[in-house]
C-alpha cells in the first residue's frame, strides 16, 4: 500500500474514533442533565424553614355564628353522638372553640346583655373526635400543646349563679381586650391579667352505663332539694340526638357539672405542657374540647373566668387498660407549669367555717336542717371557710384598692386562688384566698 494511502486511512480511522468519543461524551452529558432535572422535579422546593412540615394535623374547624349552625359542635353528652372527625394517637388535633355562653357578647356589651344569655346553650363544645385504637377501659392521655386566644373575652356575673350568688344578685360584665401577653378591661381599670390559658371543658363521651348511673344519682339529688340540672332538649346540640324530637332527648347530660369523664372541670393548673388523663368509656373515646379560659383564679368564684374562643392544639396517647385507676375523676400530670402559676408577690386572707347565727348559707339550705340555722360555728365545713376567706378578700380589695364590690368579685374570679390550709384542726378547717399583687399597675 502506498504511504499516502496509509495516511488517508489512518486519518479516517482517527476521525471516526474522535467522532465516537465525542458522541459518547455528549450522551453522558445529556444523561447527567436529564438526571439532574428529574431530581430537581422530584425534590420539594422550600422557600425557607416556614415551609418545612414535620407534624401531622387533624383540623376540627367551627362553622357559623353559633353551635346550632355548626355540625362540629355539641352542648350535651351522650354515647349516641357520632364522631365528627378521626385522629391517630400522636397526631396533633387543632380544635376551633367557642366562648362558654355561645354568646353575642362583644367589647361594648353591658350588664343588661348578660340577662339575654340563654343558659340552655352552655357549653358549646367542639367534637367529638374518634381516637383510633382507643377502647373502653383505656386511658386517653391528652397533652395541651398550644392555645391561640381570640382578641376578646369576658367575665360575667349571672344572677343566681356563682359562689356568692346570694350577695351578687345583679348582672355584671367585664369586657377584656386580649393578646398572648395580657388581658385588660375598661371595666376593671388598673389591672393586667397575664395569659395562663387552659381548656375549661375537656373530656370523653360517657358510655351507656355511665349515662344511666349519672342520671339516676343527679335525679336523686334534685329530688332531695339539691342543685341538679336534668336533661333539657331545648337548645340541645346535636339536635338529632339531644334536641326535641331527637333520638335521646331525655338522656343527654348537661355540661355544667364535671363528672368522671372530665368535662367542665375548670382546673387552672391544666395549662400548656400538662397532660390530662381521661378514662375511655366508648371505643374511640369521643374527645371534645371547649370553654377555654384565658386566665382564672382557683375557684372561678364569680361563675366565669376570662371566657374566650380559641384554637386549641392537643396531642393524644393511649394507655391501655388504665381506666380502672380512675374511680372519682380524671388525673393529670406535668412538670414546672405549676411553679409558673405562682405569684411573685401576694396578699392573702384566711377564713374558717364561721357564720352569723340565725342565717343559712345557700349551699346548705337544701339540707333543711334545724340544727344548722342557729349555729355561728359549723363543723368541718370547707365551703363555709372558703366563703369567709373570699368575702374578706373582696373587702380588702374594696378598702385598699378602691374597687366596687362587683369589680372586686371579678378580680377574685380571674386572678385570686382559694387554697385549703388544713383539714384536721377540728372544727375549723382553714381556707386562704391568695391575690397576686403584680396584676395591679400601681
Question: How would you describe the overall organization of this protein?
Answer:
It is a single chain. This protein is of the alpha+beta class and 442 residues long. Helix content is 23%, strand content 25%. The chain has seven helices and 20 strands. The protein is globular, with a radius of gyration of 32 Å.
The CATH topology annotation of the largest domain reads as Jelly Rolls
* Main structural class: alpha+beta
Give the distance, in angstroms, between the N- and C-terminal Cα atoms: 115 Å
Number of helices: 7
Name the CATH homologous superfamily of the largest domain.
Acetamidase/Formamidase-like domains
Entry summary:
By secondary structure, the protein is α+β, with helices and mostly antiparallel strands.
Which key terms come to mind for this protein?
20 strands, 25% strand, 442 residues, alpha+beta, single chain, Endonuclease I-creI, Jelly Rolls, six-stranded mixed beta sheet
